[in-house]
Structure formats: C-alpha cells, structure tokens
Amino acid sequence: MNELKLKAMAKINLGLDVLRKREDGYHDLRMIMQTVYLYDQITLRRQGSGGISVQTNLSYLPVNEDNLVFRAAKLLMDEFSVDEGLQIELVKHIPVAAGLAGGSSDAAAVLVGVNRMYDLGLTQEELMARAVRIGADVPYCVMRGTALAEGIGERLTRLPDAPDLHVVLAKPAVHVSTGFVYGNLKADALAYHPDIDAQAQAIRDGDAYRMAELMGNVLETVTIPAYPVVAEIKDQMMRAGAVNAMMSGSGPSVFGLFDDETKARRSYDELSRGDLARSVFLTRFFHNRKREKKAVWQP
C-alpha cells in the first residue's frame, strides 16, 4: 500500500462536567463524546527516504513536530523502526482551536493510517493506549462514535449510538485558550453539574429528547462571560427551533441539535448570513456501525 486516504472526524461534547482539579494540574472530567460528520482529509504517501514531511492547506499551521500529525506518525514509526519516508497531506475543514478536537482527530487518523499502511498489527485498544501520549482526546478520536469519557478524557466506555439528530455547528470569530478556560474555572465552587449518568442512560434508552434536555457544559461558566457571542449563538439556535444548544469543549464553537431538518437549515441559513459566526456547518452524528476489535476505520 503506497497511498492511503482517511477522514478525521470532529467531535462535540453532549455533556461536560469537571469534578475537581488534580494535584498534577489537570482536571478530572466526565463527558459524553459524540463524533459528527465534519472532517479533515488526510492522505498518507510512502516515500523512499526523507523522513516525515507534512503539507497542509493552511499556511499558519506548523509542519514539524509542533503538528500533532507529525508526532503521531513519529511515535509509531520510531517504535516499530520504520525507516522509509512518509508524506502527510492534511486538508483542514474542521475549524482550528474550536473545541471540536480537530488536531486530536488528525493525529488519530495518522495513527490508524500508519498502523494500516505498514502492517503493524496493532488493535484499536493498543492504538488508543499509545494515543494518550499525544493528547487526552486522541484515544477517543481513534475510537469515535458515542462514548463516556472520564479522567482527563482518556478512560473511555463505549455507549450505544446516540439517537440521530440534525446538527448545526457554528464557530464565532474569536479565539479561546483552553488554558485560560481551565485556569479560570472554579471547579470546587460550581453550583451546577450536568447529570452525565442520566444522559448516558437516555442514550442507552434511545431517548433523543431526554438526551438533549440533559446537555450541560460547566466550562460555559468561564467562556460565556469572556465571550458573550457564544451565548448569542446558542440563543439564535434555540429561537430557530433547536431541541437544545450548547458550547462544545472549552469553546468557542456552539452546536444545536434539531429534530427537524427544516428548522436546522433555517438556523444554518440565518447564521451563515449573519455576523455572529465565522464558520457554520449543517451536519449529523457519525456512528461506528461496525464494532470491530481491529483498528480498522471505515472512511
């Protein structure tokens, strides 16, 4: 196999709770993660020599070890002594620094692709164990689908496929630092914690409305006061008929869940014409229909 094409899917958090700040500076989290059908395109090509090279359609992205795709390829190629060259072509569609795990998903795609291209024989679980060295979201992005994430996000429990709903994603023209959000979160003084267990049960029951009703993200307590446009986008989605709307991750992206495609398209059209959001997408949940033990994705 000399060339391999992969889709690196974005994720949203249907629920995000922070339990406490740990002694190592990280936070203990409980989250419901969901893959959505918005993706970056990654092409891997074998080269006779030359090490790892990265090409991307965004001039401001690094093409060295500061890019997670480079680090993902190097991690496996060093471990398994792969000494030939590899070219990575990354075409970004997922907004950068948006709370959608675009970089983590890109790294996960490269792990899966390198494993397949060089016949390394790693299972999905073995890839996930290595993925956490690159970032806390990367193991989930290897697994994809619907999952309960705990710890710093690396402890994962598969859930049944979440009930299908239409999704509108919108990213405003602001940059939100994840470090700023977690650094200003008063985890021990939160007045509200979303019921992650009840939301997981709603997913098991196939109850889309209960799942949406239980959406909550405690990081909004930091991001929204600093960036009120996040709340404005949520309000727009709710007025357009969303079952519920919420910020994903530490933001600034917002997603709305809709049970009616016409309402979803109305929200999408209004946001696309307005000045609240720089990037707007109309999409849906992505599900892993095949629960395979091997680390094989269906692009």
What's this, in brief?
This protein has ten helices and eleven strands. The protein has helices at 68-79, 102-117, 124-131, 138-143, 178-184, 196-205, 208-213, 220-226, 229-239, 261-273, and strands at 3-21, 27-47, 52-56, 85-91, 146-151, 155-158, 166-171, 216-217, 244-247, 254-258, 279-284.
Task: Explain what the structure shows.
The protein is an alpha+beta fold and 299 residues long. It has two domains: 3-158, Ribosomal Protein S5, domain 2 (2-Layer Sandwich); 166-284, Alpha-Beta Plaits (2-Layer Sandwich). It is built from ten helices and eleven strands. It has helices spanning 68-79, 102-117, 124-131, 138-143, 178-184, 196-205, 208-213, 220-226, 229-239, 261-273, and strands at 3-21, 27-47, 52-56, 85-91, 146-151, 155-158, 166-171, 216-217, 244-247, 254-258, 279-284. α9 packs antiparallel against α10.
Total of DSSP H or I helical runs spanning 4+ residues: 10
Shape: globular
Topology-level CATH name of the largest domain: Ribosomal Protein S5, domain 2
Low-confidence stretches: 290-299
Helicity, in percent?
A: 25-40%
- Tally of separate domains: 2
Distance between the termini: 16 Å
Which whole number gives the mean pLDDT? 93
- CATH class descriptor name of the largest domain: Alpha Beta
Radius of gyration in whole Å, from Cα? 19 Å
Largest sheet: 7 strands, mixed
Number of strands: 11
Q: What's the order of the H and E elements?
A: EEEHEHHHEEEHHHEHHEEHE
